[in-house]
Structure prediction request, 206 residues.
Amino acid sequence: MALFKRCSFCVVTGASRGLGREIAVQLAQGWSQQGVQSDLVLVSRTEKDLQAAKADIESSSPGTSVHVIPADLQDLSAIHEAFSRCAAVAAESSKKHEQFVIVHDAGSAGDITQPIVQQTDPSVLQEQLALNFTSMSILTSLFLSRFTSGERVVVNISSLLAKVHLAGFAMYSASRAARNALVGTFAAENPDVRFLTYTPGEFHSL
Prediction:
């Protein structure tokens, strides 16, 4: 947990369940153990699950203020509003944040029963790309534009499917590989920001 130190502000997408929720829990516990004061913003589409995650984190991690923002990141028209709500948490907090972090875990494998040759509906393909790639790109840009001082960290949760190709996962694999490439470009353009790509079993720092 050495990466996440001092007074921190962190946004975790896809935080209502699975790996995203576990990351949020582990971050909060690490901060609490180190006496770090933090604001943790949980973003996902299911408010009930977000509230459950918030209750778990607050009960086990004193010093962490947990904020819930329900948002469907597949709906690109809602991205700016969702981020504005995240930024408002930082602006209204009494804490003096020295570090700003965003963890991207939101994503979906989509319908894995259909081979790619049967996936010819542009709207369906666009929806999957919107959640797995486009929303992450926009949120990262908004994050870097809004938070311009202090230590900034962008964490991309990737997948081995960005490298390993399995039947039924064509669009998911393509979008995860595209995210990895996007992070590399963000890193090249923003040398003062730390970018991390984490694939379960692998870890890359740019």
Remarks:
- The first helix runs from residue 18 to 34.
- The chain has a mean pLDDT of 88.
